[in-house]
# Entry
Amino acid sequence: MPLTVPGEWAPHAAMWLGFPSHEELWEDDLAPAQAEVAALARALAGPGGERVRLLVQGDEAEAAARALLAGARVEIVRGLFGDIWLRDTGPIFTLNQNGVAAAAFRFNGWGGKYVLEGDDGVAEQLAAASGAPLTGHEMVLEGGALDHDGFGTVLTTRQCLLNANRNPGWDVAVAEAALKSALGAKKVLWLGDGLLNDHTDGHVDNLARFVAPGVVACPVSFGRDDPNGALYDETAALLASMTDARGAPLQVMRVASPGFIDAGKGEPSPASHMNFIIANSAVIAPIYEERAGGFALDALAGLFPEREVIGLPSRAILTGGGSFHCITQQEPAIPPL
# Structure
């Protein structure tokens, strides 16, 4: 089996999930964020769900997690980390001829914005706990900057991957060679900018996601004051002009955005329904506003007829800068022979 990153819809052996554990970071949002993460963990581990491994730090956080998750089939794993964004600080799990492996990349706090003690050791901890051999890579890369179709097609944004605050001097050719070597990428599809006020510098998992081979979902604006409306239309048009690694034209499906979600002082937050998780038996999407959220869930139900589509609140988690996809990392199952 050649080196590849499976599509997120491929079977998982486990889903890793970060639990808010640092009061000095979350302040008044700590308890609400913990409750939202616990609800997500319960949904992931529900009937027909999957193995959920919740990473916590410290006695108080562990006690809070155990209280919120009493009776749930969730494993609580002690660890050391700066914050809960495991999609970016954890490894990217791959498959190769020897089974599951883990690729670790340097993490620099999204271009030096939020450098927290412990984040640079998360990949090693998750790989060790999963039993996957770990390969380290010198380039700076976050998992949320990429999306994968399981056949070697990688979706990303120029704003993030070519940003000088990650890997100075990178251009398209250098980036594509690095992704081919580390993750088995066969073709990289380049979008432009990401959402406004996204401190990740435009992670693609807030903008466009593979939902099946050859099928990509991206938002359509909701409300006249949607701050990213023009970006969404530009992204959809660009995707519609692309082909994947197999040479097939992309089918583009639109999902209602949350519209304008106030981050405070009238500034838009980087809220996105694209930050959903594809689990073994469910798709779980963050919801910020009831009407827009209902439209988004209806669209996702059409895209994932074989999975239960669940919407859960993510307002408190969003105060930290991300949502459900940002705080999780799937560990793929070894496919049957």
Residues 54 and 238 are 37 Å apart (CA to CA). The longest helix spans residues 30-45. The domain at 12-332 is CATH 3.75.10.10 (L-arginine/glycine Amidinotransferase; Chain A). The chain has one domain: 12-332.
